[in-house]
Structure formats: structure tokens, C-alpha cells
Amino acid sequence: MVLPRLLKLVMVSVWLGSSFAQNVTQAQPAMWVQEKEAVSLLCSYDTSTVSYDLLWYKQPSSGEMDFLILQNSYSQQNATKGRYSVNLQKASKSIQLVISASQLGDSAVYFCALREGTVGGLLEGGAQKPRVCLRQPPAVGTKAGNGHPR
Length: 150
Known about the structure:
Blueprint: E1 6-16, E2 22-25, E3 31-34, E4 39-47, E5 52-59, E6 66-72, E7 80-81, E8 84-89, E9 94-99, E10 108-116, E11 122-135
Parallel strand pairs: 1-10, 3-11
Antiparallel strand pairs: 1-11, 2-4, 4-9, 5-6, 5-10, 7-8, 8-9
Signal peptide: 1-21
Subcellular location: Cell membrane
Pfam families: V-set
């Protein structure tokens, strides 16, 4: 019997900066994604400044915090780093993290952070947000989608 291995991605928001005139949220519902598919995580923000950075981090179950990618508000192009890319929409004040060719090793808690021009430190943390679960493609001899033998 083939048991599918699940990959869970939990998104959490934090905001960094020198004032409380900012906010970072995720309202994205939980979703299931097949391994090797692209994963998109959405983060909405609000800030009163024009110069800011949006950062994405991931924290695997081992506990260390890994920086993934940074997008500057003044940059004309969206940032890309390996399998990670972002799509910044300043007009709607949102940023999307895209993880291409998802892997089981992507299992982690994901953090979206907003940092204004001068960093005053971590002001407040966010609560756990949507879960995104990935699973391996069905093995030969199983029904597509459920990972159970035929």
C-alpha cells in the first residue's frame, strides 16, 4: 500500500518597522497542491510610507528561520531567486510568493514581513494562517488524486 507523503505549508504574517501605521494579513484559505506543482501564497499589506521592503521567510520543523526573498517597493522588476519569485501589486497593496516545482522539503511555516525604510525591530507577530498541503504524485497502480491503491 502506498501512503502519500504530505507537505504542509503554513503561512504566518509579521511586520517590521518604526511605526504602527502598517499591517500585514493573509486571508487565503487552505489548499492542497500536488508535489512538483507551483504554489502561490498571497500577502496583503498596508503602510503609510512609500519606501518599504516585503520579505518572505520559511521556518521548517527544525526551527531555524530561513530568508527566502526580498522585494523593494522602489524596484521596477519583481524579485526572483531560484524556485521563488514574487509578484508585487502596489495598487492593491499585495504581494504573491510563488514556489515553482514544489518539493516535499518545502514543508514549513511561511512568514510574510513588511519593513519600512528604517527598521525599529519586530513590532508584533501574526497568527497562523492558511495551510497549503503538497503531496507526491500518485504512484503507479494508484488512482490519481487520492494515493490509495485501486
